[in-house]
Amino acid sequence: MTPASAADCEQAAIGAYLLGADDESAKHWEEAVRAALSGGDLAESARYAFWLGFGFMMRGQAAPASGWLSRAEALAADAGTECRASGYVLIPKCLVAIDDGEPAEALEMAVSATEIGDRFGHERECVLLAVDSNASLRMHGALDRPA
């Protein structure tokens, strides 16, 4: 039996997520991380680890979220060059900075993440992050006027 490719695992993870099968989705994201690592693709492995960790974070599972997001950040750094995950890993940090009352830090990370996403042709993710960060900063009274 041939092991599934990382891209196949990613598609299975997304499909399971859309069906509400969170545990199955997490299993497929973890398989994608392993498949990308075994293929020597640290950048894609970092991206898959990010989505696994972000999924845990969104479900309020702090311990596995922290572990996988840290792993995503380490893999992105080990890739040796900027990659999509380099920007993705800034998203949770931005949200934490907002919650910690550090709007300037949050805004700096949001801008960095959107610039990285833009360089990799991920305009939709950039716009969503910018809108979410702007709204969060506004809710915390960090922005004085509309953008």
Question: Can you tell me about this structure?
Answer:
With 147 residues, the chain is an all-alpha fold. The chain folds into two domains: 1-78, Serine Threonine Protein Phosphatase 5, Tetratricopeptide repeat (Alpha Horseshoe), CATH 1.25.40; 89-142. It has eight helices and no strands. The protein has helices at residues 6-18, 22-38, 42-58, 62-78, 84-88, 90-99, 103-119, 123-139. The longest helix has 17 residues, at 22-38.
Please give the structural blueprint:
Blueprint: H1 6-18, H2 22-38, H3 42-58, H4 62-78, H5 84-88, H6 90-99, H7 103-119, H8 123-139
Helix pairs in contact: 1-2, 2-3, 3-4, 6-7, 6-8, 7-8
How many domains, in number, for the residues? 2
Listing every helix as H and every strand as E from the N terminus to the C terminus, the arrangement reads: HHHHHHHH
Q: Class of the largest domain, according to the CATH hierarchy?
A: Mainly Alpha
| CATH architectural grouping of the largest domain | Alpha Horseshoe
What proportion of the residues form beta strands (DSSP E)?
A: under 5%
Largest sheet: none
Distance between the termini: 54 Å
Give the radius of gyration. Answer: 16 Å
Average predicted confidence as pLDDT: 85
Helix content: over 70%
Q: Can you tell me the overall shape?
A: globular
CATH topology of the largest domain: Serine Threonine Protein Phosphatase 5, Tetratricopeptide repeat
List the uncertain runs.
none
Number of helices: 8
DSSP strand tally: 0
Q: Class by helix and strand content?
A: mainly alpha
